[in-house]
């Protein structure tokens, strides 16, 4: 590497710095410049490609269909669980023992077909 000697003026007199003040001049290395050109090519290609409004509409309809299907399955499940007969005392027992809200206790009891033991085991797992 080349070394550059910095001269300083002190009180109007030019002084040559000591050997300790000599700093090597670093050259700017451009090691990532070739990647910039490649990135520009990819960016240009993507900018030229357009997304049609029909493609967007199709994607949105797929999401809507999936959401409505999941909602229908959830409603059907809740209807099936609502048919299960549960005892009010069992719900109170689960609420007090597990310290959970009534809706959670009822749901777990219905999922376990009204069995208090199974519901408590399911809640502790």
Quick synopsis:
This protein has 125 residues and is mostly helical. Among the domains are: 52-78; 84-125.
Question: How are the secondary structure elements laid out?
Answer:
Elements: E1 3-4, E2 8-10, E3 13-15, E4 23-24, H1 33-48, H2 53-82, H3 88-98, H4 102-111, H5 116-124
Antiparallel strand pairs: 1-4, 2-3
Helix pairs in contact: 3-4, 3-5, 4-5
Protein architecture, described:
The structure is a single chain. This protein is mainly alpha-helical. It is built from five helices and four strands. A two-stranded antiparallel sheet has the order 1-4. A two-stranded antiparallel ribbon has the order 2-3. The protein is 61% helix and 8% strand. Among the domains are: 52-78; 84-125. The longest helix is centred in the middle third of the chain and has 30 residues, at 53-82. Pfam families: UBA_HYPK. Residues 1-22 are annotated as: Disordered.
């Amino acid at each position: 590497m080349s070394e550059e000697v910095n001269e300083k003026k002190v009180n109007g007199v030019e002084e040559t710095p000591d050997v300790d003040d000599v700093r090597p001049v670093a050259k700017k290395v451009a090691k990532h410049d070739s990647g910039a050109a490649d990135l520009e090519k990819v960016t240009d290609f993507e900018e030229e490609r357009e997304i049609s409004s029909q493609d967007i509409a199709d994607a949105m309809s797929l999401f809507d269909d999936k959401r409505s299907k999941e909602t229908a399955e959830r409603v059907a499940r809740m209807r099936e669980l609502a048919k299960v007969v549960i005892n009010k005392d069992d719900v109170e027992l689960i609420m007090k023992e597990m310290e959970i809200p009534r809706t959670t206790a009822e749901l777990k009891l219905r999922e376990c077909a009204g069995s208090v033991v199974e519901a408590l085991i399911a809640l502790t797992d």
